[in-house]
Amino acid sequence: MALLEAKGIHKRFGQQVVLEKVNITFEENQLSGIVGPNGAGKTTLFNILTGQHWPDRGKVFFNGKNITRFSRQRVARMGIARSFQIMNLFDDFTAIENIMVALPNVRQRQFNMFMNVPTDSAIQDEAYEVLRRIGLDKVARTEAKNLPYGKRRALEIGVALASKPRMLFLDEPTQGMGSDQMSNLIDLVLKLKEIVTIVVIEHDMDFLVEIADVISVILWGQIIATDAPDKLLANRGVLQ
Ligand SMILES: Nc1ncnc2c1ncn2[C@@H]1O[C@H](COP(=O)(O)OP(=O)(O)OP(=O)(O)O)[C@@H](O)[C@H]1O
Ligand SMILES: [Mg+2]
């Protein structure tokens, strides 16, 4: 059984059909890529799979359970985390504070994040562990706004990881990155692949080929191919 499965997803915004009959499955412990041009419907698909939007038709199953009309909070509690295409950090908070406020133990306390970041050591240890995973433990006390761009993007992934998800969705993690930052990100994602099932949206086919076990191509709201990276690259029609 696939860890996550979407069946017959349709979504429209007003007159515009954005997703049409989308069927897609994600296997546990695999890294799946989704590639496609601007406006193809990639982010919309993520929004539906993670409960930000509900589909007009179709169903989403996680671990066999129908989660189609769950709220995004409920989807998150089931073990699905995501990063956003547009950065989503608290700029005036340090790296470790950004992680701490995303830890489930802290969230449950419903603390006021504009007033009191927790200081207890168990929470800090837990946050350090996440920072180590993403290679940011050395900059734990640096404010997010003062981190270089590549590290900010890694921190966003850390925020998503803080909930110890079973599945992680990354929306264009390479956006705005140079080649050095990109190779660091490839290393990071390959490491994370050992501990969590990952789905990555990307424009950058070269990046996806480095990291993905399987890639789906989405065009005008439809999945037109799903295959191993080397097989996809051999398919001239898809490449075009
Ligand atoms: N909330 C919304 N309301 C109305 N239209 C929307 C909404 N979200 C997305 N769209 C439209 O749906 C289409 C698909 O958008 P989507 O963001 O899913 O594309 P994408 O594949 O992620 O593109 P990109 O590569 O530029 O990020 C676009 O035409 C977009 O304008
Ligand atoms: Mg998008």
Please tell me about this protein's structure.
- This protein has 240 residues and is α/β, with parallel strands linked by helices.
- The protein folds into 2 domains: 138 residues, 3-Layer(aba) Sandwich (Rossmann fold), CATH 3.40.50.300; 75 residues, no CATH class.
- It has a 6-stranded mixed beta sheet with strand order 6-7-8-3-9-10, sandwiched between helices. It has a 4-stranded antiparallel beta sheet with strand order 2-1-4-5, with helices on one face.
- Helix 7 links the parallel strand 7 and strand 8.
- Helix 6 runs parallel beside helix 7.
- The longest helix is centred in the last third of the chain and has 14 residues.
- The two termini are 32 Å apart.
- The relative contact order is 0.18.
- It binds adenosine-5'-triphosphate and magnesium ion.
- Magnesium ion binds next to helix 1.
How would you concisely characterize the structure shown here?
The chain has 240 residues and is of the alpha/beta class.
Please describe the structure with a list of short key phrases separated by commas or semicolons.
single chain; 240 residues; alpha/beta; Rossmann fold; 2 domains; 6-stranded mixed beta sheet; 4-stranded antiparallel beta sheet; 10 helices; 25% strand; globular; binds adenosine-5'-triphosphate; binds magnesium ion
Helix content: 25-40%
Please provide the ordered H/E string of secondary-structure elements: EEEHEEHEHHHHEHEHEEHH
Shape: globular
Radius of gyration: 18 Å
> Proportion of β residues?
25-35%
- Estimated structural class: alpha/beta
Domain count: the total is: 2
Please list the strands of the largest sheet in the order they lie side by side.
6-7-8-3-9-10
What is the name of the CATH class of the largest domain? Alpha Beta
